TrEMBL record:
Residues 133-152 are annotated as: Disordered. GO terms for cellular component: cytoplasm. The lineage of its organism: Archaea, Methanobacteriati, Methanobacteriota, Stenosarchaea group, Halobacteria. Pfam families: TRM5-TYW2_MTfase, Trm5_N, TYW2_N_2. Keywords: Cytoplasm, Methyltransferase, S-adenosyl-L-methionine, Transferase, tRNA processing. This is Class I SAM-dependent methyltransferase family protein. InterPro entries: MeTrfase_TRM5/TYW2, SAM-dependent_MTases_sf, TRM5-TYW2-like_MTfase, TRM5/TYW2-like_N, Trm5a/b_N. One of its GO terms (biological process) is tRNA N1-guanine methylation. SUPFAM superfamilies: S-adenosyl-L-methionine-dependent methyltransferases. It comes from the Archaea. Residues 79-341 form the SAM-dependent methyltransferase TRM5/TYW2-type domain. One of its GO terms (molecular function) is tRNA methyltransferase activity. Gene3D superfamilies: 3.30.70.2580, Met-10+ protein-like domains (3.30.300.110), Vaccinia Virus protein VP39 (3.40.50.150).
Length: 342
């Protein structure tokens, strides 16, 4: 049977499959297929697929022999995948464990199931997690008693790069994969790129892979450890400098240096705009992430950039982009702003 399918390069397949699933567009009754260097992901509504993705008609076989959590539970639970961890968000403890057991019993590929036990909190923006099911860290290889890795540590793959991380120790959102890729695609060989709040490197590592010289900063020491490891894993250690510390202090060594600055700390990035401007070279693109009310999602950030730039830079907003809904009446947005020294 011919059905609409999103066609993307194989290395982008898992990230796009996750995004389509989160949007309720994935056709779970049809098989995903691969041909040459492309993967074809069946969708239930071609018209609802974002315009940035190519949709083609293609034969897609019915899925057979695979058991889903939905079939075990009798309803469709809400969960997402990060590497080999399944993440659920269920308030009732008993129901949360039922969902976790169903996920493990199904053919959904995962090693551990966790439940969100708190909101993002603290300076490092991490959550508490309840491990519901999965391998026991005290059960080492062949019962040796030494765990191969913590239950909350995983390897996430995104657009051809891999990121080792522990969700209990660092902040990471797989839902922003497409947005990160959009920014990374703008990077040119030889650029100086500064990531102000780098985390484990989902912006910094791909920018370095594009040929930029990257400086990546974060206050979370564990995030910086993972960042350095991820630079090594992806073969970009030579052109990525990872620094642990407050970017306001680090920036003193990189004044007027950057051709591109990423400021992805949506709740408070505008408080660091003086630092972003200090980092900017003669010509610099600033990617500012913000969370604002839907009535004026871009105005506050744009006004804050202009105030920080003062008379030193001409400010041109090149892109105003709504990244995702964040909360009722609030949106996560990005402003791509060009700063040109006057």
């Amino acid at each position: 049977m011919r059905v609409p399918c999103v066609r993307v390069p194989v290395e982008e397949g898992e990230a796009i499959r996750t995004l389509l699933a989160d949007a309720g567009l994935l056709d779970g009754d049809r098989e995903i297929s691969v041909e040459d260097d492309d993967i074809y992901i069946p969708v239930v509504d071609a018209d609802a697929v974002p315009a940035e993705y190519e949709v083609v008609e293609r034969e897609a076989a019915e899925r057979t022999g695979q058991v889903t959590p939905d079939e075990i539970l009798g309803y469709e639970p809400s969960y997402e995948r990060l590497g080999d961890i399944a993440i659920v968000d269920v308030d009732d403890p008993g129901e949360a464990r039922r969902v976790a057991e169903a996920i493990l019993e199904s053919d959904f590929p995962c090693r551990t199931v966790v439940n969100r036990a708190s909101k993002v909190k603290g300076e490092y923006r991490v959550r508490d997690w309840e491990v519901l099911a999965g391998d026991d860290p005290e059960d080492g290889p062949e019962g040796g008693g030494t765990p191969s890795r913590p239950r909350t540590e995983t390897v996430h793959r995104e657009y051809g790069h891999e990121f080792l991380l522990d969700i209990a120790e660092v902040y990471f959102s797989p839902r922003l994969a497409t947005e990160r890729h959009r920014v990374v695609e703008q990077v040119e060989v030889g650029e100086h790129a500064f990531d102000m709040f780098a985390g484990v490197g989902p912006f910094a590592v791909p920018m370095a892979a594009r040929g930029a010289e990257v400086v990546a900063c974060d206050v979370n020491p564990r995030a910086v450890e993972y960042l350095r490891e991820n630079a090594r894993r992806n073969g970009v250690s030579e052109n990525l400098t990872a620094i642990e510390g407050d970017v306001r202090e680090v920036a003193a060594d990189y004044g007027n240096w950057a051709d591109r600055v990423v400021a992805n700390l949506p709740h408070s990035a505008t408080e660091f705009l003086d630092t972003a401007v200090a980092l900017a070279g003669e010509e610099c693109v600033l990617h500012l992430y913000d969370i604002q009310h839907e009535d004026d999602p871009f105005g506050p950030g744009e006004r804050a950039v202009r105030a920080a730039a003062g008379g030193e830079y001409e400010v041109t907003v090149e892109t105003r982009r709504e990244v995702r809904s964040y909360a009722p009446h609030e949106v996560n947005v990005c402003l791509d702003v060009r700063l040109s020294r006057v």
